[in-house]
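Lay summary. Proteins are chains of building blocks that fold into shapes, and those shapes determine what they do. In this project we predict the shape from the chain. Here is one chain we studied, written as its sequence of building blocks.
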Amino acid sequence: MRTHRKASAALAVTAILVMPTTTAFARDGSGLVKAEGWFAPPSPSQLSNALTYDVTKVPVGSRVSVVQQSGESDGGGDGVHAGEQADGAATTVLLRVSGLLPDRMYGAHVHTEPCGRAPEAAGPHYQNVMDPNQPSTDPAYANPGNEVWLDFTTDAGGHGTAESRHDWRFRPGGARSLVIHEHHTSTGPGEAGTAGARLACLTVPFAPTGTEGSSAGPSAAAPDRIRP
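And here is the predicted shape, written in a compact code that computers can read:
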């Protein structure tokens, strides 16, 4: 079953999220990657690591923080079948935002490329097992077990949090941003994984921290064996 709960449930994780850093890289198998920023519109002179493409829905100056933690699986994550796991590998991604519109639903996913001046620069969703047909809208691939979905609903103050946990790790260089979308993610055939317009983007150096070489490759499983 997919775990998707507020980060405030874990005090240690909350403490990490509010640390006053800009971008942190996992080193020496530390199991932690962090990126945060204050959203700004794309600029010809300087490109921020946190970009808003819709200043009405994601206002300039609103804040985003993403933490990736890697460790050993306890079997409780967004698992797929055992052939796609990597000997106890586990990845947790946590998202926190503030300054967004109050009481509003947003979608959010991990994408394959860094943020750019155009929303499309972030590429497609990261998939543990890659759909050979892109854009991917097949629920066999576009599901919260094979991708990283971090949909959230803001509170009355414009704050939101989300968590997604998986029994696999990112491929090296395969996941490089977090994109906030217009609405929660659809799941039906032909629209699975879609969440409307790309509103904002944070460049994140996601990494297969922890056990070296633990990520499953594109051919790890047949599509009919992937499940949310």
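What the prediction tells us: The longest strand covers residues 63-72.
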